Amino acid sequence: MTEGTPDTQSITPDVAVQRAGFVALIGEPNAGKSTLLNRMVGAKVSIVTHKVQTTRARIRGVAIEGDSQIVFVDTPGLFQPKRRLDRAMVAAAWSGVSDADVVVLMIEAHRGITKGVEAILERLGDVGKGRTIALAINKIDRVEAPVLLGLTKEMNERFAFAETFLISAEKGHGAGTLRTWLAERMPVEPWLYPEDQIADLPLRMIAAEITREKLTLRLHQELPYQLTVETENWEERKDGSCKVDQLVYVMRDGHKGIVLGNRGETIKSVGQAARAELVEFLGRKVHLFIQVKVRPNWLEDSDRYSEMGLNFKDGNE
Ligand SMILES: Nc1nc2c(ncn2[C@@H]2O[C@H](COP(=O)(O)OP(=O)(O)OP(=O)(O)O)[C@@H](O)[C@H]2O)c(=O)[nH]1
């Protein structure tokens, strides 16, 4: 072993420390989470915003700030659930919280501490243990300073926030400061995405999200819970069209049968619907290829990354 010898040390490059981690932005519906994310990540991801809320935490965008890569996970708005589907969504939002390195609770300045906010605070007491949790009071443009001071004080009395940010996601106030703060709090880890992949990441995500949405619509309650859609390949063609390859991963053979449907009819209609929406979204021709694969251990294999929509290759495909 030459490790530690003067020779080895002298050729070791001076690599800057890389940081990478997950941030969950939570709050009641309409708090302004999407608006803030778009400010911090860039306009391209904004389209995902208005998509129907699906049931799992997915990557919403990746921001790079200095040596840090901040991966924002999408958590459906937290509200008090009544229907079963709503309960599933809220559960998903909380699972995003327990996977995140940093959680930002966003509230609306002019609405103050609503019942919904109170419920979130209560839950944060359990789920948020050991996590860095910041408070972002949004829409500060709608209130006067004394109201803000009062709200800041009261919220901090109720919960031990690591930091409080007063922001206006719409006007842009405070978003940069929050991003810098988050960047500093990312764990020292190699980046999760190569820099050049980030450019088309939103499109890949949107395409996967569209297919997942169509699967949800087509399969209703039959939808296997542990199912994930990944856009494996995105190819721009000279004729202006693009070719998109997607994989639907399921846990069991039986699930594969459900997703494929009788003589492949289900996946075919899902593919048609997804392609039509992609064409409308991109405004050009799309060739969409969807494959369904059984990967029994995908949850354990790639752990939370896959769960959150991150696409790590197995290395043997
Ligand atoms: N006045 C004001 N309005 C804002 C601000 N930030 C966001 N909004 C508005 O608040 C509304 C909700 O914003 P979104 O970003 O869609 O909220 P969200 O939390 O992502 O909502 P869901 O997707 O339903 O969870 C939009 O109409 C925004 O334009 C702000 O700083 N000031």
TrEMBL record:
Residues 219-296 form the KH type-2 domain. Residues 167-169 are annotated as: G5. It comes from the Bacteria. Residues 138-141 are annotated as: G4. One of its GO terms (cellular component) is plasma membrane. Its main location: cytoplasm. GTP binds at residues 27-34, 74-78, 138-141. It is a peripheral membrane protein. Pfam families: KH_2, MMR_HSR1. Monomer. An essential GTPase that binds both GDP and GTP, with rapid nucleotide exchange. Plays a role in 16S rRNA processing and 30S ribosomal subunit biogenesis and possibly also in cell cycle regulation and energy metabolism. This is GTPase Era. It comes from Octadecabacter arcticus 238.
